[in-house]
Fold:
Amino acid sequence: MAEKLVPVVCPWCSVGCRFYIVNVNGYPKKIEFDYEHDTRNHGKLCPKGVAAFQYLRHPDRLKRPLKRVGERGEGKFVEISWEEAIKEIAQKLKEIKEKYGPEALAFLGSERCSIEENYVLQKLARALGTNNIEYVCRMCQSTAVAGKGMVLGHPGLTNPFEDILKAKVIVLWGYNPAATNPVFFGQYIEKAILDNGAKLIVVDPRKTKTAKYADIHIQPYPGTDLAVALAMLNVIITEELYDKDFVAERTEGFEELAKTVEKYTPEWAEKVSGVPAELIRKAAITFATAGTAALLTNEGVNQHANGTRTVMAITEMMVLCGYFGKEGVMSGAIPGAHNGMGAGLMGIGPHELPGRFPLHAEEHKRRIEEAWGFKIPEKPGITYVEMIDAILEGKLKALYVMGTNPAKALPNLKKAEEAFKNIEFLVVQDIFLTETAKYADIVLPAAAWFEKDGTAISFERRVQRSFKAADAPGEAKPDWEILVMLAKELGFGEYFNYSDADDILREINRIIPPLAGATPERLKKNLKGCMIPCPDENTEVPRLFVQGFLTPNGKAQLIPVEYKEPGEVPDEEYPFWLTNYRLVGHFHTGTMSHRSKSLSKRWPEEYIEINENDAKRLGIKDGDLVRVETRRAALVFKAKVTPHIREGVVAAPWHWDFNYLTKDVLDEYAKMPELKTAACRISKVEG
Amino acid sequence: MSKKIFIDFKRCIACKACEVACEMEHGEARIRVFEFPDLTSVAFNCRHCEKAPCMEVCPVNALSKDDDGAVVLDPLKCIGCLMCGLACPFGIPKIDEYNKIMDKCDLCAHRRAEGKLPACVSACPTEALKYGDINDVLWAREGKIVAELKDIGDRTNVLEAYLIR
Structure:
């Protein structure tokens, strides 16, 4: 029994916690807490972190390549050899490319895989001649990236975690870190509130575990947050609570913004959002007069068809008050997964080059082409949700999916399933036979996060190395290795000459300037990693925007924002607002968490929260079965009658079948689908 | 002096990391999180009482105190008579129906032997669970409140801050 403690980065959310896997001759026995190193989690973990060893040896793990023998979606496969699988994939991709052109191919990367693997995937797509390369950021942070990008020039978290300890006011908007980032909440936010006396403002239609600590709790109808934000801007400007020096020196466009929000009074916002005008006023004054404040937003703001506008308005509140470039302030985007920020930086986007430069940034493009030795295609690719339409229209013929599960994560799932049934060729590379994999022609078994070396970037902009702590089951291989095999079979061997993750990271160091200093040697020596941008081995940037913003002229852009409704609002026929949320014990589509014994036991099934007064009116009691119907589908849930959700709103966790109910209408800037608001009707299931 | 797990329940967010950590170490969770309709939540485990009724009633002396003051069960002596479960005011000792003996928290004796914290305390992301000499923990809390008394000087605020919240 050779027991080894191997240091790893947690594979669930994006806080960047570290711990050890107890490795017994290649078998992951359990986790052990890391109290030895200087880590961001101070040794602490959430239930998912503690259970992180359980899914690795689940009997469902994919162990050999599979070829479909049944109908698509049926899940009938036979095992084939790696050689056969790779040969068949390469041949099909070549055929489709020859017949329809490279734009008929598309690739999906993953925030669940390392930066090295995502880098290799986008490089392979471009070698094949397409920019149809996407990952779930489109359905997670794309609105935050677009909105914060326009206002500030960069979406990243502005300050290191500990800076929030000095905030006088903390605003958590559409964000429930007590459930989604418990360690960040417990080690930083809760300490700021309970130990240092920070005031907490929470904006959420539900009274969450986070809202339990709130001094002010604002409960808008889902997706009407924009009205609340515009009214807060209105109060901050009309009552002259903004930082006049900061606005004069470091911003542009104030006059026009002031003119635009003039009509958006708190009284107007009350009509739209259902939030009392006085409460909006109180929140705006508390926030603007704080001196130092943190304002963190998440999916409750992002995942709407008006998401980019909401992000812009909320970010402009921060700008007006000058809450940048010092201790005690914080704002930024909080990706769902442990490498959400890293994958994006690799250029896993249809309009982006590695380093997240726009596709038309000629200088960078030339530099990368020279380093690679081949041309990057000109034409921008198709965005994630629009790929479904492209498949149904017959424009997209082949889809290569790495470590992501669109057949459960996309909105309006019935339509998505139709697309997966009708695509010409689908490859899924994953650790389990996901809902998406059931439609695949070829399924490839991948090594899980702990079964390989890899690098991830947390939402703190912190680059960290995670090490191989267990052997992969059967013939499963690391994602990058599979991609290199495929590249060689496609005849691109010369461009993909990597023998381990370090080789790939060294190329990333050369290609992506903000990661130049995040070398394998540095990350192995220093488990705490470094905060990007790190232009060389001795530097990192703990605080953004200290001197200037990253906009072209260095000034924050106060772009005027007009109100727009979310993607669907209730009417006579469908009178309830429907929204969703995440549970502390599950993760996204549940591929891993539903297969973790300690988690699925404690969070076994979906249910729908309904306000006690609404329930009484409809004759629904706690535990009754209710039928929830939108214009797209109907699902049956167990009812959970509670005072902790506002009247007129119903909400369910989304780790099960929720997305059959959602609508695939898109945000105009970021192409984010409306995942968080739908109009529904409810009836008790009799019998 | 005796070491215990102090539960600061206003910090608890019912994430159940303690339960999962305990389950990982012992196969079954010996700590449980209770949630109330007003969103209060309390993680609760054996209190390792100073005058432990379970020890007093055990007919076969299967329960004893170790060097840290933890009440531990000797599975080789236990006959599964359930007396400890009846005597415990909290109903903590449970029957392990497979092995026909009782099962209870031992403050992670095997982890303490290696100089580690109990698993539930190691995990707890909000520090609602604190482990240590109970007097040190209580002194620290007392000291914090007294320091604030000195700072605020206005008793009504203290009452508001600590009693009403």
Observations:
- Helices of chain B lie at 17-26, 53-57, 83-87, 109-113, 119-123, 134-152, 155-164.
- Chain B has a mean pLDDT of 91.
